[in-house]
Hints:
The chain folds into two domains: 1-46; 59-183, Glutaredoxin, CATH 3.40.30.10. It contains four helices and seven strands, in the order H-E-E-E-H-E-H-E-E-E-H. It has helices at residues 2-46, 88-103, 119-129, 173-183, and strands at residues 59-61, 67-69, 78-83, 109-114, 135-140, 153-157, 163-168. Strands 2-1-5-4-3-6-7 form a seven-stranded mixed β-sheet, with helices on one face. The termini are far apart.
Amino acid sequence: MADRSSAGAPRSRLTLRIVAVWVVPSLAIATLTASLGWGLVHAAKQSTSVVGSRVPDLTVRSLDGDVISLRGLTGTPMVVNFWASWCVPCRQEAPVLAAAARGTAGRVQFIGVDMQDTDAAAHSYEADIQSPYPVGPAIQGSYHDFGVTAPPETFYIDRRGTVVSRIIGPVDKQRMDVYMSQIST
């Protein structure tokens, strides 16, 4: 009887090794894949495009203390940029946005909407960037109303208050010129 139990021990160790080496990682990979798939499907369902729609009702309190309502700016073309202090591409696109804002001053209103930041981080970022247009957090409405999932995202709104186009990711000069031509006519 001692021989049977000692012969069974190596088999059970081998079985445990197989489970530990193959089955557990396989289950982990399957779970991660299923989770990723579920997240992508549900994110796509929740991320609605506002292009072609009236600009969402969003109000920003600039870091200078001014209150800006996007719907209150109907009649003026707008560029609305969603950014965050921790966003590296936001820092990269800042000079392009600043140049376009300076070049269209008085004709197009630029607004920077800070998302997911502390006040200190936003102020520090803005001290470095020095945007020539109002920037600050939303105090009414949310970046979710625009379908923004991560910064930077930029929206172009015509005089009627209709969102004409959207850029996901950093804006470069070429794309800025093309999209600006859609709203500044």
